[in-house]
Design a protein that fits this description.
It contains nine helices and five strands. The chain has 203 residues and is an alpha+beta fold. The chain has three domains: 59 residues, Nucleic acid-binding proteins (OB fold (Dihydrolipoamide Acetyltransferase, E2P), Beta Barrel); 63 residues, Orthogonal Bundle (DNA polymerase, domain 1), CATH 1.10.150.20; 51 residues, Helicase, Ruva Protein, domain 3 (Orthogonal Bundle), CATH 1.10.8. β1 and β2 form a beta hairpin. The longest helix has 18 residues.
């Protein structure tokens, strides 16, 4: 079991980072919020969860132990795999997910791409007694992400599609955050722009 990953950030993309651990580059799947806190060349430590499949080994990284705990817990619900669990944490914080499940807030849960009304009802039923209080955090070391390759609109759109949003929703979100990118001068800060895009889609 891999509990955490510590090393130097080699590269950052909206939903993935490569961390150099003892000369080995580990590809770590991250939420946009986690990616936004990483900086190329800086030391970082991420809580980690290794998902083993017959044909793949996928490492997921999180800014806190609490995020990892929720990521693993939500997968105990029927129909929730690691990609959907990651999308849930991309849209909602761990505490927001706990609140949504505790209050049976189906509207909040269905804001996550891939979760419909019936899926939200099933998640509430199966997780209501499992999601508990916050766990201790492993804070990331480092600031903003480095500049990823490619233009930010393509990067953000591709990340949204990867998280399960439709092409139409992704295009609309990119259009909505374009003025923000120009206004704040964050055209190349893709993780932060992706977070802004997710906020517009969650409204």
């Amino acid at each position: 079991m891999i509990a955490f990953v510590r090393g130097v950030v080699s590269s950052v993309r909206p939903t993935e980072a490569v961390v150099d651990v003892g000369g080995i580059g580990l590809a770590v799947q991250c939420t946009p919020g986690t990616s936004a806190e990483l900086r190329v060349g800086a030391q970082t430590q991420l809580a980690a969860s290794l998902v083993v499949r017959e044909d793949s080994l996928t490492l997921y990284g999180f800014a806190t132990d609490d995020e990892r705990t929720v990521f693993e817990l939500v997968q105990t619900a029927s129909g929730v795999g690691p990609r959907l669990a990651q999308a849930m944490l991309a849209v909602h914080s761990p505490d927001d997910l706990r609140r949504a499940v505790a209050m049976e807030d189906l509207a909040a849960l269905t804001k996550v791409p891939g979760i419909g009304k019936k899926g939200a009802q099933r998640i509430v039923i199966e997780l209501k007694d499992k999601l508990g209080g916050s766990a201790g955090a492993i804070p990331p070391e480092g600031g903003r992400a480095g500049t990823p390759s490619g233009g930010w609109p393509e990067q953000v759109r591709g990340a949204l599609l990867g998280l399960g949003w439709s092409a139409r929703d992704a295009d609309a979100a990119v259009e909505q955050i374009t003025p923000l990118a120009a206004e704040n001068g964050h055209e190349a800060d893709v993780p932060s722009l992706l977070k802004a895009a997710l906020r517009t889609l969650a409204k």
